[in-house]
Amino acid sequence: MSDVFRVSQSKVKVWRRCHRAYDFKYVQGLRKKRKSRPLQFGTMIHEALEIHCNGDDPLEYFNHLRSDVEAMRLFAQEREEYGDILEDCEDIVTDYLKYWDYDEDIRYVRKRRRGAEHHFEIELMPGVIWNGKIDNLLVTPNKLRWLGEHKTYTRRPNDDDRWRNLQGATYIRANDILGWQPLDGLLWDYIKSKPPATPSVLKDGTLSTKKIDTLPAKIHRVIKRHEGDPGNTKALLAMAEKNRSQYFHRVYAPVNRTVTDMIFEDFKASIREMIDGHGKCSEMNIDKHCSWCDYEPLCRSLLQGLDVDFVKEKEYTDGTKTNHQEPPHSAIHKADYDTVQQFAAS
Questions:
Q1: Are 128 and 340 a contacting pair, CB within 8 Å?
Q2: Residue 239 resides in a domain
Q3: Tell me, what DSSP letter sits at residue 83?
Q4: If phi over 0 gives left and psi between -120 and 50 gives alpha, with beta otherwise, what is residue 340?
Q5: DSSP letters for 287-303
Q6: From residue 255, how far is each of 162, 163, 171, 183, 265 by CA, in Å?
Q7: What is the pLDDT of residue 1?
Q8: Which domain holds residue 237?
Q9: Position with higher pLDDT, 222 vs 178
Q10: Total domain count for the chain?
Q11: Which of 23, 168, 175, 336 has its CA 20 to 30 A from that of 296?
Q12: How distant, in Å, are the alpha carbons of 278, 279, 308 from that of 275?
C-alpha cells in the first residue's frame, strides 16, 4: 500500500457491503470489461446534466458521441442486449429539460467557473486523502442553498432510501470543511432509467394508443421514422406528456446536523477499518446484493469450484491500467489535515 491512502464514498460503501468485492476492486484492481446498462446509463445522464448545469446544451453531448467512432462501435455491440441506450438517454434528457423548463428559477453556484461536478480532495486523516465529486450546488428562489444530487433509478426511491444514503451526508460535511457557505439541505433530482416504450403499429398502419410507459421525445422519434400518417399522434403525445412525472421528480430534504455528525463519524470509522484490513480481509458477504454486484461471477466460480482465472481473463480487465480522465489540477478543491482539525474544533 502506498504512503497515501485514497478513499471515496463508493470505496467505503463497497467495503461495508462485502470485503471480497472490495478486494477484487481495490486490491486486485479488477474491472468488468463491459459496463452494466444501469452504470452506462447513469454515466451518460450525469455527463449530459453536467453540461446543462454548466450552461451549455446537453444534447450536443449525444451528437458528440455519434461522431465518436469507437463509442458507436461499442454501442452497436451492446444494442442487442441493452437496446439503443444512446437514443434512450437522449430522449430522457430531452424530456427532463422540458419538464424542468422553469430551471431558470434555480441558480447553480459556480466554483472556479464551473456550475457542476465540483471535485475535492480532503486530507481527512494524516496520509488519508478523501476524494469526491459534488454534482452541483444551487440556490432556490427562497434563498435556500442546496447540495444537488442527480440519481438514476429503476425503482423509485423513498424516504427510507434517502435517510440511509451515505453520500449526501458526507458531502454536506465536505462542503463545510472546504469553507463554503452552509447548506440548508439536499436536493434529490431523480431520473428513471427505464427505456421509454415504443408504441406498436396496428394492422391499418396507425400507432396503437394503448397506455405505455414512455415520453414525448420517444413518440416524436417514432413519428419521424414512420412512413405516412401514423395516426393517433395527439392522443399518444398527451399520454406521454402526462407520464413525464413518472420519470422525473425532485425531493428537497432539509439537513439534520445531528444525523450528519453521526453518519460522518461512522464514515471515518469505516475508513480506519479499511486501512487496517486493506489486502488482508477478503471474506464474502453473500446476500441479495450479489445479484447486482460486478464480481458475482467470480464469487460464484469460487463457490462452485470453477476456473476463477478463466473468468477473470474473460470478463475482467486490469482497472489500474484504464485511462481515467482526471480533472485539471486547478479544478480540484483541497483541504489539508490542519484545516480539517480547525473545522472539528470550531
A1: no
A2: yes
A3: -
A4: alpha
A5: SGGGGG-TTHHHHHHHH
A6: 12, 11, 11, 7, 16
A7: 44
A8: 196-245
A9: 178
A10: 1
A11: 168
A12: 5, 9, 27
Q: What is the C-alpha to C-alpha distance for residues 141 and 138, in angstroms, rounded to an integer?
A: 10
Name the grid cell of 318. Answer: 486490469
What pLDDT, in 10s, does the model give residues 201-259? 888 888 888 999 999 999 999 888 876 667 788 899 999 999 999 999 999 999 988 98
Q: In the predicted model, is pLDDT for residue 136 greater than 90?
A: yes
Nearest-angstrom CA–CA distance, 225 and 214: 17
Q: CB-hemisphere CA count at 13 Å for 293?
A: 26
Cα gap 167→268, rounded to integer Å: 13
Please check the confidence at residue 23 and state whether its pLDDT lies above 60.
yes
Which of 209, 214, 177, 180 has its CA nearest to residue 195? 214
- Tell me, yes or no, whether 327 lies in a domain: no
| Residue 141 CA to its chain's centroid (Å) | 26
Closest CA to 175 of 230, 135, 232: 135
Measured torsion, CA atoms of residues 301, 305, 310, 316, in degrees rounded to the nearest 10:
20
For residue 82, pLDDT over 60 is answered with: no
Q: Is residue 258 part of a domain?
A: no
Q: What is the DSSP letter of 76?
A: H
Q: Higher model confidence: residue 96 or residue 156?
A: 96
Q: For residue 249, give the C-alpha cell.
A: 421528480
How many CA atoms lie less than 13 Å away from 241 in the CB half-sphere?
8
According to the model, what pLDDT value does residue 212 have? Answer: 95
Whether the per-residue pLDDT at 124 is higher than 50: the answer is: yes
14-23, 70-79, 190-199 — which is least confidently predicted?
70-79
